[in-house]
Amino acid sequence: MAEIFLSYRRKDSRSATARLADDLEAHFGDDRVFRDVEIAAGDDFVEAICRSVESATVVLVVVGPHWLDATDAGGRRRLDDRADFVRLEIELALRARVPIVPVLVEGATMPSAAELPSSLAEFARCQAVELSEKRWRDDGAALIEALRSRFAISSDTAPRPSDGRLGETLVRTARDVLELALHPKRLIARRQTGRASDSVRAFAFLCGAIVAGNAILLAAIDTRLVAQGSAASVVLGIVGWLLVGLMVGLLAATLLVAPLALAWRVAERAATYRRVGLVGAYVYGGAWVGLCTGATVLVSAVQLLDPDLMARLLAALHAAAAGSALTLPPMRTPATAPFSAAAETLFVLAAGIWLLTAFWCIVAWASFRQAFAATRRQAALATTLWLAVLVALCWLAGRAG
Question: Cα–Cα distance between 299 and 297 in angstroms, integer?
Answer without folding.
Answer: 6
